[in-house]
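Check out one such.
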Amino acid sequence: MSRAPAAASPYARLVLDTMPQACRIGLALGFVRTFGVPEVATVLHGTGRLSAVPGERAKATGVAMFALIGHGPGSAAGRRVVEELRRLHDRPDITPELMHYVLACFTLCPLRLIDGYGPRPVSGAERAAAFAFHRELADALGLPPVPQPDLPALGSWMRDFEERRFAPSAAAHALWRSTGPVLAARLPAAPTPLAGVLAAALLDDPLRAALGVRHPPAPVRALAAGALRRGLRTT
């Protein structure tokens, strides 16, 4: 994993040094969240890679995001990742709006996980730096300017987008069957019988509906949340 230099942004220090495990889980959740949009799920499922080698695909996504956050989209390493991302997503069925949504998932989901389960909430400086990174990456990818003025506005746009676009799909259900165990494996100190339930418990109701995941009973959700919280606060 790349280490954040001393002069790195508060967001890079949070992701790479302060809470890397929580951020890895949050990025994985962000990736899973994109499956709720049928167009995205169809594209990802159509490549076949997530079904064949889900761990490898998830790891590659995490490595790319950590490299971008650690070095910046404008660095030599960052430009290489950006060019690869542009090549992979240069297709007519991936619109700028969909790309903006995917970037929003990768930006917001780690912060939400930390706020809910980490040893402390994300600071104001870290939130501002995360939003600055989001805008810089969108610009590097050649997307239209981010219309939202700050992180809360981005979160509101993301919720509105999901209300309009989330829907169940066979592709999303298949992707979850492949990647759910990968997400479960990243959770800290989860007992093996509980790992899958814990992963499902981290999904909210709209995403569960889109992925075709059963709603865990309240006691199971509470047990799973407690296990994750204890794990992240002791690492």
About this structure: Residues 1-7 have pLDDT under 50 and may be disordered. Residues 10-233 form one domain.
